[in-house]
Structures are given as C-alpha cells and as structure tokens.
Amino acid sequence: MTTARTDTLEALTNAAVGLCISWAATYWLLPMWGLTPSLTQSAGITAMFFVTSFVRSLVLRRIFRLAS
Known about the structure:
By secondary structure, the chain is mostly helical.
C-alpha cells in the first residue's frame, strides 16, 4: 500500500534527478540561444524549476490516489 510518505519520497527523488539534469542543461545549453547564465544564476533557475516540478508531481500523484 502506498502512503503519502512514499509518494513524497518518490516525487522528491524524481525531482532531485531532474535537478541535476536541469542544472547541467541550463548551464551548458542556454548559451546556444545567446543566454550565458553564471553558475549561481543557473542554480537559481534550476531551483525554481525543481520546486515547481516537485510540487506538480506530488499534487498530481495525490489527485490520482484520491480518485482511485
């Protein structure tokens, strides 16, 4: 049986992996479009997307759990 704690852990793990990928992409790929963020700016952009991704994933998971 899945619990809210397991849902939270899964959403956090998923978002943490995405955090690493997003930081690397932000730092190395944005210059292709003329945007050159510093390491600190890349971390800030990534943190914003990390929080957004985590909350989105957790909310959707909880909605689906309640609906089933």
